Structures are given as structure tokens and as C-alpha cells.
Amino acid sequence: MDKQSLLQLEGLRGQMMDTANRKQTLMDHDVLILSQLLDQIIVKVQAEKVAMRKRTKTC
């Protein structure tokens, strides 16, 4: 994971936790949006790792 993705991930996670604590629920619309954004980043990073492993194996 590159540094920018890690910083983005940690920033969004912090926002999500702050929002959930403020709203006192994980089911709030804003919390769910942040959670979905986090999911997208995680999936992107995992796909990049898989692609990197495939490139490494073929070299």
C-alpha cells in the first residue's frame, strides 16, 4: 500500500469513527457513505497487491 492510500484510508477511518460516535450509530447515512468509501479503497489496494504478485511470478 502506498503512503497516499494509507493516509487516505486512515483519514476516512477516523472520519467514520468520529461520525459514528457523534451520531451514536453505525447506521447513519454519513457513516455508511464513509464505510463504502473505505471498502472501495481496500478493494483497490487488494487488487493492486494481487496484480503485483502476478507480475512478480511471471518475471
From TrEMBL:
One of its GO terms (molecular function) is protein dimerization activity. SUPFAM superfamilies: BAS1536-like (SSF140500). It holds the Pfam family SpoOE-like. GO terms for biological process: regulation of sporulation. InterPro entries: HLH_DNA-bd_sf, Spo0E-like, Spo0E-like_sf. This is Aspartyl-phosphate phosphatase Spo0E family protein. It comes from Paenibacillus abyssi.
